[in-house]
Amino acid sequence: MKSFIAKLTVLTLAIALIGWLVFSLFLPEYYLPVFPFLLGFFFVVTLAIHAYQLRIAQKDIGKFARSNMLITFFKLMTYSVLAVIYIALDRENAIQFVVGLMFLYLVYSFFEVKEVSKINRLTRK
Questions:
Q1: Does residue 1 contact residue 57 with C-beta atoms inside 8 Å?
Q2: 106 pLDDT exceeds 90?
Q3: 3-class DSSP state for residue 1?
Q4: % helix / strand / coil in the chain, to the nearest 5?
Q5: Distance from chain centroid for Cα 41
Q6: At what angle do helices 94-124 and 61-89 cross, to 10 degrees?
Q7: Interval 36-82: pLDDT, tens
Q8: What is the per-residue pLDDT for 94?
Q9: Are 111 and 46 in contact (CB under 8 A)?
Q10: Based on C-alpha coordinates, what's the Rg of the chain?
Q11: Which helix (H) or strand (E) segment is 101 a member of?
């Protein structure tokens, strides 16, 4: 778990740095003040889900496989609800928010799938 937290922290800091560079040098008009909170939200959700999946994998690999799809569905629904709420509150910046949300979703999902695949391989051995 320590390794995952370290990798997740590095990923989050890298995204923050890249976002700072992009929004300060190239696209300042598209920066949303909510971006750091969104980044923190993805960090916390990814960490919580990984800890839960790790606990399930240690107990029962069959349950882990079944729960993985359900967790992914609920995660996607949570992010969709977040997008709908934000769009309802701030229609003017909806496109920037959705693009940022989808970018973070893709990056964190790719990272999470990579790490969950490692868990799956280790528990099969």
A1: no
A2: yes
A3: coil
A4: 95, 0, 5
A5: 8
A6: 170
A7: 999 999 999 999 999 988 888 788 777 777 888 888 899 999 999 99
A8: 93
A9: yes
A10: 16
A11: helix 94-124
Alpha-helical segments (H) within 61-93 = 61-89
The four Cα atoms 4, 6, 8, 12 give a dihedral, to 10 degrees, of 180
Where do we find the tokens 């990814």? 46
Residue tagged 């889900």 (tokens):
49
- Nearest-angstrom CA–CA distance, 23 and 74: 31
Q: Which of 9-23, 91-105, 111-125 has the lowest mean pLDDT?
A: 111-125
Please give the Cα distance from 71 to 77 (Å, whole number): 10
* CB contact at 8 A, 37 and 44: no
The structure tokens 């069959």 sit at 62
Give SS3 for 31. coil
* Structure tokens belonging to residue 10: 């590095």
The residue assigned the tokens 């003017």 is 92
